[in-house]
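User:
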Amino acid sequence: MRKAIFAALAGVVLVALSGCGSSRHNPAGVYEVVGVEADDMLKLRAGPGTGFSIIAGLPNGSIVRVQSCERTGGTRWCKVSMMPSRGVDGYVSWAYLKRT
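Assistant: Predicted structure:
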């Protein structure tokens, strides 16, 4: 019985470790803003949360470079820089990004 439990746990650990190199764990790269309502824009914020000031609004099709992501509350926020406008950076919700 112990061997079966150990084997099952080892299998779970191996499956979990096999995904460590995926884009889910390493989000850095170039992304496109998608899924924003037609009359709205994705807010580029000064920090990872809705309580931070808005730096800019990004319409669908905007291209950003993701530097890193973190979870704040129930939302995954990514630190991004606008492309081609380097030097303009902030945080956006991961839910509106699609890898290009």
